[in-house]
Write a structure and sequence with these properties.
Layout (H helix, E strand, L loop, with lengths): L1 H11 L32 E2 L17 E5 L9 E7 L2 H13 L3 E4 L1 E6 L5 E3 L2 E12 L5 E16 L8 E6 L7 H19 L3 H10 L6 H12 L3 H9 L3 H23 L8
Helix pairs in contact: 3-4, 3-7, 5-7
């Protein structure tokens, strides 16, 4: 019942869970093992506008908690529901909630171990803060993590906490070709019009994602979170510094999605994922 109430609290914010090439709603949120019961792993959700109460200070990266999970990649401006049950990660969650501390979602490197026998992780990670949380009677937690930034892990720290911590630095994005970025954003608008002719509801969600008040980079990350469920592709986009290169991948994916919509409405076989 507690998990159901947490689901309803998320739904009340008006958020949508998306899974291209088919878009899914928040009804799919709690399914799986590592995320709140009934949630699929790696199903992050784009958020139309950044919560102004969540901020990331660079000094918080000097001792940053990491949460290694396979198949999970958190992009900035996306939401990730997690079910916390291991004691070490409960301790991490308690600290994050009490002191407004960030958590970095790190992707393990294919079973490799370091000298201390810990799973090696990709050096580029998505970092976020807890937007919503729910403590369960047995000490477990349901949390909703909001992605704030990309970080580069510099080194792992020797700490007394049961959870791992690293020293990291912000991985800043760059725009090398402003004209190309503007052209690609126009392509997104054009594709959205094509999608709107078939499915107004999806087009409306896309329009919300394209609110540029948070900046062009935020728009690109929101769209990437919508259109790329595969963790390997998501990790590639996380590591990509150039904003217009990320957006080019999004435009290609949107074009595929539009073709699939037209194919399905025409009664033919859909494109493969």
């Amino acid at each position: 019942m507690a998990e159901r109430s947490f689901l309803l609290s998320i739904a009340s914010v008006g958020l949508k869970l998306t899974h291209p090439i088919r878009l899914r709603t928040h009804r799919h949120l709690f399914r799986g093992t590592k995320v709140p019961s009934k949630a699929k792993p790696n199903q992050t959700m784009p958020l139309p506008a950044a919560p102004t109460t969540l901020q990331l200070a660079e000094h918080e990266l000097e001792s940053l908690a990491i949460f290694p999970l396979p198949s999970i990649v958190l992009l900035p401006h996306a939401l990730l529901p997690l079910h916390i049950f291991e004691p070490r990660h409960r301790a991490m969650t308690i600290a994050a909630i009490a002191d407004d501390l960030p958590i970095a979602m790190t992707l393990p490197l294919g079973g490799e171990l370091d000298a201390q026998g810990r799973p090696r992780v990709h050096p580029v990670a998505g970092v976020g803060k807890v937007l919503q949380h729910e403590s369960l009677p047995d000490g477990r937690y349901n949390i909703l993590l909001y992605g704030l930034a990309r970080v580069q892990i510099e080194r792992e720290l020797e700490v007394k906490t049961p959870y791992r911590q690293v020293q990291a630095t912000l991985r800043k994005s760059q725009i090398n070709d402003e004209d190309r970025l503007v052209s690609l954003l126009q392509s997104v608008h054009t594709l959205t019009l094509g999608i709107r002719a078939i499915d107004v509801k999806i087009a409306r969600e896309l329009a919300n994602m394209m609110d540029e008040r948070a900046g062009k980079e935020a728009v690109v990350d929101r769209l990437a979170s919508m259109f790329f469920p595969d963790y390997r592709k998501r990790q590639t986009l996380l590591e990509q510094k150039v904003v217009e290169v990320r957006l080019a991948h999004v435009v290609e994916r949107m074009a595929q999605y539009l073709v699939q919509l037209r194919t399905e409405r025409g009664g033919r076989e859909p494109l493969p994922n």
